[in-house]
Amino acid sequence: MLSGLLGGLVLAAGHAHAQQPVRGITKDEILIGSLQDLSGPAAGPGKEIRNGMQMRLDEANAQGGIHGRKLRLVIEDHGYDPKRAVLGAQKLIDRDQVFMMVGQFGSATMLATLPLLERAGMVNFFPLSSARQAFEPASPLKYAFHPADYDQIRHALPGLMQARGLKRICAIYQDDELGLEITRGAEAALQAQGLQWTEKMGFKRGSTDFSSQVARAKAADCDGVVLATVVRETVGVMTEARKLGFKPVFVGTSSAYSSAIPRLGGEAVEGLYATMLVEEPYLDSPNGPLREWAARYKARFSDDPTVFSGYGYFILDSFVRGVQAAGPALTPASFGQAMDGLRIPPSLFGTPEMRFGPQRRLGNDVARISQIQGGRWVLLNN
Q1: 258-296, pLDDT tens digit by residue?
Q2: What range does the domain containing 252 cover?
Q3: What torsion do the CA atoms of 337, 338, 340, 342 make, to the nearest 10 degrees?
Q4: Are 30 and 66 in contact (CB under 8 A)?
Q5: 13 belongs to a structural domain
C-alpha cells in the first residue's frame, strides 16, 4: 500500500516536472528577442537586419509555424550604445521573458550583454558580431556563425600584402572592442612576418573627423592601411584620404562590407578590400537563387536588400532549423542537443556548411574577400 502510494507520488512529481513552463514557450508561440541599432550610427544596418529576420519569420508562420507554434520577435533598440544594450537585454530577459536572444547586432553591445545572458542561462544565438567572445570559451549558451574579425584580418592580410607588394602597414581603428580585435589580428599577421606597424591611429566611436589620422598615415608613407571601422567611418577615412591625394591600399573586415559604402563614398572608396561571409544580394546578382530572393525582398519592403538583410534572414533561418530539429518538446536543452547534431547546409548567400558540437561553438571559420570595383562589391575568391 505504502509502496504504491510512493510510486504514485513519484509519477505525479515526474508529470508535474514535465509540464513545467519554459520561458518564452507556450503551446502556440515561441517568443524570441533581439537587440539592434535602430536609432544610432548603424541604424541603417539595424533596420535591414530586422527586415531580413522578419521576412524569414513570416515565411515560417505562413507555413503553420514550427511544430504548431508561431514565432514572435521582440526587438529592443540599443542605438549602438553598450549601456542601452544592457537595459534592453534586461527588459527582454525579465519583462518579456523571451526564449532566446537571436541575432543581436554589434560587438561592443554584445559583450556588454553577455554577463546578463549567462546569469539568466539564456542562449546567445548567432550574434551579428565578429568578437571571439561570441564563441569562446565554449559554452552551451553560445552559437556563432561569424568568424572573428581577429582571424579574418590575420588570414587575409599576408596574402594581400604579397599580392600588392605592401611593406609599410598602418592602422586607423575605432577605439573599442571591435577596433582592438581587428588591430590585434593584423598585428599578429605582421609579427608572423617579422614586421611591425608603421603607424597606428585610433578614434572614438561615433567620430566624424578623421583628418588628423589620415594626415599621420600619409606622413608615415603607409602603402597599406588596415581599417578597423564600420560603414560611416570607412567612408569618412577614405574620403579624407582622397582629399589629401593619399592612395594606399585600404583593407577592412566584414565590419566594413556593405553596399552603403560604395553608395555613400562613390569614387573615394574604389579599390577597398574587405573580408566577408554573406554576399551582397544585388538585384542583378549572377547567383540565381540569391537574385530571386532579392526580388522577393524588394517586393516585400519596397527597398533593395543589403548584406545586412541577408544576415537577418540567414540567422532566423538557422534558428528555425534548430527549432525544427529539437522537436515539439522545445526547451533550451533540447534545442542545444539538436544544434549539436545539426548540419546547416550552404546557403543561397554563399555561407558554407556549418556544424556545431560541445567544443565547437563557431559553425564556420572561413571568410572570403571582396573589392569595390565600379561602385559595387566583387567577390575575389570562393
Answers
A1: 999 999 999 999 999 999 999 999 999 999 999 999 999
A2: 149-276
A3: 170
A4: yes
A5: no
